[in-house]
Amino acid sequence: MRYPYNAGYEPPFPAASVVMVNSDDGLSTGPARALLDTGSDGTLVPLTYLREIGATPLTETRIRSHWGEWRRVQLFVVDLKWDDLTFAGIFVVGDDQGSEIILGRDVLNRLRLLLDGPAHMTSLR
């Protein structure tokens, strides 16, 4: 499967469309654009998406941003669907500041990806 990069960024950014599901009651949202970020340890999801599916926070923790500042965040558990793949029980950070889903290495390390920068395409194998 091949996916084009998001050309709304300069340089273009690897991206995919995902669906998020609250496994407790089956509510889902999406598909929504997610950026593939190999530099992010975890997955971040805007709180608006999590509220749409009625996800409840499990706990609070602190994370450090790419700028180095620390902030308190809530962790949620959701199922993520990317085409015919389902990742059940993924811990995600509820992001109250961002507007984009960031798929981090907690999800990406489960996949065999080829990021073809010159062609602006991601291949999922």
Q: Can you lay out the helices and strands and say which pair or pack?
A:
Elements: E1 2-4, E2 15-21, E3 28-36, E4 43-46, H1 47-52, E5 59-64, E6 70-82, E7 85-95, E8 101-103, H2 105-108, E9 113-116, E10 121-124
Parallel strand pairs: 3-8, 4-7
Antiparallel strand pairs: 1-10, 2-3, 2-6, 5-6, 6-7, 9-10
Give an overview of the whole structure.
The chain is mostly beta strands and about 120 residues long. It has one domain: Acid Proteases (Cathepsin D, subunit A, domain 1), CATH 2.40.70. Helices cover about 10% and strands about 50% of the residues. It has helices at about 45-50, 105-110, and strands at about 1-5, 15-20, 30-35, 45, 60-65, 70-80, 85-95, 100-105, 115, 120-125. Strands 2, 3, 4, 5, 6, 7 and 8 form a seven-stranded mixed sheet that branches. A three-stranded antiparallel sheet has the order 1-10-9, with no helix packed on it. Strand 6 and strand 7 (about 85-95) form a beta hairpin. The longest helix has 6 residues, at about 45-50. The radius of gyration is 14 Å and the shape is globular. The relative contact order is 0.27.
